[in-house]
Amino acid sequence: MATSKKPKNVKKAQKSARNEKVSRGWWFWLSNGLSALIWMTLLAGGVLGYFALGLPNVDDVVASTRRQPILTVRDAQGGDIVRIGALYGEALSVSDLPPALPAAVMAIEDRRFYSHFGIDPRGFARAMLANIRAGSVVQGGSTITQQVAKNLFLTPERTIARKIREALLALWLEQKFTKEQILTLYLNRVYLGSGTYGAEAAAQTYFGRSARDLSVYQAAMIAGLMKAPSRYNPKTDIDAARARTAVVLQAMVDAGYLTSEQSAAAKSGGQVRVSKGVSGRGRYFADWVLATLDGLVGPIEDDLVVHTTLDPDVQSSSERRLSAALSGDAEKRGAEQGAIVVLSPDGAVRALVGGRDYKSSQFNRAVQARRQPGSAFKPFVYLSGLEAGLKPTDILKDAPINIDGWRPKNFSGTYEGDISLEDSLARSINTVAVRVARKAGPTAIAETARRVGISTPLANDLGLALGTSEVSLIELTAAYAPFSNGGVAIVPYGIIDVVTNDGRVLYRRQGGGLGRAADPEHVGMMNRMLSKTMMTGTGKGAQLDRPSAGKTGTSQDFRDAWFVGYTPDYIAGVWVGNDAGKGMKGITGGGVPARVWRDVMLEAHRGAPATALAGWIPPKPVDTLTRFWRRLTGG
Prior knowledge:
By secondary structure, this protein is α+β, with helices and mostly antiparallel strands. Among the domains are: about 65-270, Penicillin binding protein transpeptidase fold; about 315-390 and about 435-495 and about 510-605, 3-Layer(aba) Sandwich (Beta-lactamase), CATH 3.40.710.10. The protein has helices at about 10-55, 60-65, 100-110, 120-135, 145-155, 160-175, 180-190, 200-205, 215-225, 240-255, 260-270, 285-290, 295, 310-325, 330, 380-385, 420-425, 430-440, 440-450, 475-480, 480-485, 520-535, 590-605, 625-635; strands at about 70-75, 80-85, 85-90, 195, 305-310, 335-345, 350-355, 395-400, 415-420, 490, 495-500, 505-510, 515, 550-555, 560-565, 570-575. It has a five-stranded mixed β-sheet with strand order 2-1-5-11-12, covered by helices on one side. Helix 3 runs parallel beside helix 9 (about 215-225), helix 9 (about 215-225) crosses helix 10 (about 240-255) and helix 16 (about 380-385) packs across helix 19.
């Protein structure tokens, strides 16, 4: 059977059709690919444009370097108690610094700093590969320029949006500034631990010297902080800091900044002395004074130095004595906390301890806590009694008493019968205190307490006689000041003046007491009675080597134990107890608090001459022969 052949023109047509189909397919993919590329470019441009619109005003670089003010609180001898706020040192250029510091920073942070354009693709790829191999983030790919962009303009959040903005800002910084200017910005802004920003602040804080004078080893230690300022902080872990410094020195060798011999020489002299900086004492006091600062100087816009009344020796002694007391027998008897306030007769706070350990609890028990003072409140009851006409030698009855079903009892559970007013106060007799309160009246007692400085509202009932209304330690201690200074009520204060760094005075204390609160004659009588408390009464454990007076206080179920007392030079109060109000095992005001008070006051008065209490000179001791002769003759 014969077959027919396709005409040549048909073959040509088919071939032409195939070619046209291929051409159309190629053009389709080319045109669509170009369209997709254009759209992707537009989309990428739009995304970048969106993030660019969200960038801060980069022309305000100088303004963006402004920082929060630093507040420095100093004691009465000029020592720093605390510095609040980020610490920035003097801005130094790269040319001001020893070559080892920028070299160390570049060696460990950005070895290609002078060759990249703000973003280092090679360094980024190397970091990603290391992270993939390690299965975690072990290297960062940010350049120094990117870190400057982040430090100046951005938050530390870890988001893609922030990284895109960081990259855009880095490119802008590289166009706007020289490499030296960017490195200068970095070295003046990078966080280096302990609240310090910049090389100068870190050098002053850690080594007590300017960054201009850093040794190679010290420069390497500061550069090592940039990776993890807390972990490699020489103040908290010197071994970790030294190990990191060794890594930096090796990086400097690898980068060609040091020879192996120079690195070894730096290590051999690497036993650096780390500056102690602030002492750490007086933190409760610093919190207290800083809380009042806004009311004295208004909004804080400049670095300020706050000069205070704190005596570092008395403060140190108070902290030490309280800690020792609460770590011994008192702890075994259920006393977990305590507080101390020491004042001068004009109200200057010389020591303030708000608890046994500031690090574990910042609650200030000397100022913020309010507790029942017990018998430590009785001096104001007896002062009211004197103002109502009683005398220290008046005889009152210590016997059971019933006032509309209320039957207050003595701590001892016994009764003495007839007893003088001064002996009843010295021995803390409750029934007599209630009788004195009935004679004076609760309203008069509350008014007396207000005059001497008790600002907390008090109950208007006879429970005042037993100290049932709660007060703070600082106001109770201050309320004893009129007995010490001759009758003038005071307001406790801690700030002498507030000045700017250039010496401009924003505040200076100009007095501020509450005026006369007690008649000098009554003050003399109170000093006579409260001195007897120290000599023969419940306060014998607090006796000093000089004229002094004071009163114990113990609340119900041994929840609070107090001793507040004074000399002509100091007024001090001590409280011991528990935050939750849990009772202690037999601790009274005449025990632990009295002994702590005595020890603190003995150290505070060391080397000072003894002076008589206001309005009363105690009788001279009578020798044994004179006492015998008086008995024999009846004289």
